[in-house]
Design brief:
single chain; alpha/beta; Rossmann fold; 2 domains; eight-stranded mixed sheet; six-stranded mixed sheet; 14 strands; about 40% helix
Length: about 375
């Protein structure tokens, strides 16, 4: 049975990370597989920051061939008919009346809990596992994104890597891009860096180290939670559109933009500092070195997730490079002083660049998350 109609539910927790993943998945399913996708989102205002054509005041609208619905606190309207596949993004709980409507269907929907991305070993044992409903004739299956063949993979649109390579090989396109941002082309010895992070005192120390460094650094800083930490380097507030300079450091503050434009930023920079889940994955498709600011958890469980990823990502790096990357990643995620950690890591940039360029092909050897998800739905449905 080919299940052509899909519901995706997303409760926005991390401002842009949760909805970023859900929106990319919706577009992947609709555009590359021809599926009818209905995306339910509880916070349309946050969604609109990464999808500027969305009207957050409309409870129902068509956007990029996807049916976008507001998910109110009391759930979808009572007469809503569940689709043939229902996805809970990141364990958001479906309303009771919607679960009952799923159970009332003659052919029960395939019900998927799309989990958060993690490289931890235990996730592979839970991937694709069933969870029967305690009262209703329904079974939910867990689907864990990951970096290996026995996981759910990562979302990657059809042909994305080819488009990215063409962009990175097109000097005229990149020149026009920098002009659009009102920046000159990079100097021969200059680093161009994007920085998208949570609140983090390490932002201040890293920018200060670059200001005192031996080579020029231009940091592209999308407006967001890291802006006050960056502003401390200059001693005055920063806002979108501003250009601030100190020593060898130039910071250009960018307004929030849509996902495709953010990809261009990642593809154009020599180093990307990213946060959460969505920008973390996109930095990997960029084929460039990156540092990850993982979403912090009160019990420090995020540090185990960080180490699990670094173990996989660093396995093919020279031992010294892997150690330097781990040290810098921990300094970054602990909000520690970054000067020494960055100096050590920067010495390994050539090996890091080579590894980052090869990494995306390894991740896609067994298909992306869309491929694997459709295969699983066909298998169980």
């Amino acid at each position: 049975m080919e299940r052509k109609h899909w519901d995706i539910f997303c409760a926005v927790v991390d401002n842009y990370g949760d909805i970023g993943v859900a929106w990319r998945l919706a577009r992947r399913l609709a555009h590359d597989f021809g599926l009818e996708v209905r995306l339910w989102v509880d916070d349309l205002a946050s969604f609109a920051r990464i999808a500027p054509d969305l009207d957050p005041a409309l409870p129902a609208q068509r956007l990029a061939d996807i049916d976008v619905r507001h998910w109110p606190a009391d759930g979808p309207p009572a007469d809503t008919v569940p689709a043939e596949v229902v996805i809970e993004a990141f364990g958001c709980r479906l309303p009771e009346h919607f679960e009952q409507a799923m159970a009332a269907k003659a052919v029960k929907p395939v019900w998927i809990n799309l989990e958060y991305l993690s490289a931890e070993d235990w996730t592979r044992g839970c991937h694709r596992q069933p969870s029967p409903h305690p009262r209703l004739p329904l079974t939910k299956h867990f689907f864990f994104p990951g970096f290996e063949a026995d996981t759910g993979g990562l979302i990657c649109e059809q042909g994305l890597l080819d488009v990215r390579r063409q962009w990175q090989d097109d000097a005229l396109a990149r020149r026009a891009y920098w002009q659009l941002l009102e920046l000159p082309e990079p100097a021969a010895d200059e680093w161009r860096v994007s920085l998208f992070a949570y609140e983090n005192p390490a932002v201040t120390s890293l920018l200060a180290a670059w200001a005192l460094g031996e080579r020029p650094v231009t940091c592209l800083l999308p407006e967001g939670k890291a802006l006050p930490d960056a502003a401390r380097v200059f001693g005055y507030p920063l806002r979108a559109g501003m250009l601030a300079r100190q020593g060898q450091l130039t910071v250009k503050v960018l307004p929030m933009t849509d996902q495709d434009s953010y990809d261009l930023l990642l593809w154009s920079c020599d180093l990307n500092l990213v946060r959460g889940e969505d920008s973390f994955v996109r930095a990997q498709w960029a084929g460039r070195p990156f540092l990850w600011h993982i979403y912090p958890q009160d019990d420090a469980a995020h540090l185990a997730k960080l180490d699990a990823f670094l173990s996989q990502y660093g396995a093919a790096l020279p031992a010294g490079a892997a150690q330097a990357l781990s040290a810098a990643s921990h300094a970054w995620n602990h909000g520690a002083d970054m000067a020494a950690a960055w100096t050590e890591l920067a010495a390994w940039l050539p090996a890091w660049r080579e590894h980052a360029a090869a990494w995306p092909e390894k991740l896609l050897a067994d298909g992306d998350l869309g491929d694997r998800l459709l295969h699983f739905v066909r298998e169980i449905g």
